[in-house]
């Protein structure tokens, strides 16, 4: 896998942050309905919504069509963490759980693999309040910029092979 410093936040991630911030909210976290009723993000196909039920229980409420093409399957309704390699699962779980409990956002780098194709992409997660359950979940966006792709000799792997936390995003409740 080629590696490059990804300290800079891609422009489309910055645009997603601005999109999220422009949603009307009564607290620091917008509601799921407010997000869904707001004008769609220009790269909506790269968006996922996750219900975070517990530190190790998370389900995709929505998995965008662009993400489905990358994964090779629509993961809507699927267990989020089962799509992470065991070595990456604990870190992904920790980041999501901290984010919904603070609440705050995060930016991370994911190493993804589908068959012999390996990709590195920057992703973001921001909290959303599920009005019916009262739980905070996440809306995520994966950047279409800054992706690197290599061929690898293996043809079997879970979808997400690695996670590296890059930044926390303070939405008004502080950061860890």
What do these coordinates show?
With 176 residues, this protein is α+β, with helices and mostly antiparallel strands. Helices cover 23% and strands 34% of the residues. The chain contains 4 helices and 7 strands; from the N terminus they run ααββααβββββ. It has helices spanning 11-21, 32-37, 65-71, 86-101, and strands spanning 47-54, 57-63, 105-114, 117-129, 136-142, 148-151, 160-169. Strands 1, 2, 3, 4, 5, 6 and 7 form a 7-stranded antiparallel beta sheet that branches. β3 and β4 form a beta hairpin. The chain is globular, with a radius of gyration of 15 Å.
Task: Bin the strand percentage.
Answer: 25-35%
Unreliable residue stretches? 1-6
Largest sheet: 7 strands, antiparallel
**Rg computed from alpha carbons, rounded to a whole number of angstroms:** 15 Å
> What is the CA–CA distance across the termini?
30 Å
Q: Using the alpha-carbon principal axes, give the shape.
A: globular
Helical run tally: 4
Percent of residues in helical segments? 10-25%
Topology diagram in text:
Blueprint (H helix, E strand, L loop, with lengths): L10 H11 L10 H6 L9 E8 L2 E7 L1 H7 L14 H16 L3 E10 L2 E13 L6 E7 L5 E4 L8 E10 L7
Antiparallel strand pairs: 1-2, 1-5, 3-4, 3-7, 4-5, 4-6
